[in-house]
Amino acid sequence: MRATGPAAFPYRLARHELRLWASLWLWAARRTHDSAAGGAAFGYARGQGAMMFGLAFVCVVESVTMSVLLRDWPAAHHVVLVLDVYTVVMVVGLHAASVVRPHVLDAAAGTLRVRQALHVDVRIPLERIASVRRELRTTHTPADGELDLAVGSQTSVTVELTEPVAHLSFFGRRREVRVVRCHADDPGAFVRAVELAREGHAVP
User: Fold this and answer.
1) 14-23: per-residue pLDDT in tens?
2) E-assigned strands of 55-173?
3) End-to-end CA distance of the chain
4) How far is CA 75 from the centre of its chain?
5) pLDDT tens digit sequence for 165-185
6) Which residue among 39, 70, 108, 141 is least crowded, i.e. fewest CB within 10 A of its CB?
């Protein structure tokens, strides 16, 4: 049974932590999460790898610096060290979640699953797709009915729908969206595969 109301936040936070650790394990095992056996997976994390590992490196440097500054206060040093290590794990885990949770096109099931790390997982029936195209955007203005899933501040694919689909935010807020913009490492292959699937052809 899914938690609702004030009790929902601790539940979602605990679930988020479990999924983060699961993503690290899948990444280490070179496996992906919930990719359909006959589906085609499309990654989107390549563009953020350098930035995420750069952020993790900065966190490590900050941890070393704080260890030196707090060497005469062992209690504070231990607390800060735990927080710093946890922050590094979080940063690496979020990148791992992006790698192991690619977009998935399941032509047999007639769905396109658009994801972003642990935060977004939208299933779009292929019959609801009005158009899909390559479209590079580096600025995104929030608008009703639109979902922008930028990676490295950019999206490269735009999917327009004939009917809205539901998107649940991390806090459980439900939105109806008719336009989904996302990023793919190979947007051309992504768009071609979706068009083939919509036409009933096999996806390579």
Assistant:
1) 888 888 889 9
2) 103-106, 111-116, 120-125, 129-137, 146-148, 155-168
3) 39
4) 36
5) 999 887 778 899 999 999 999
6) 141
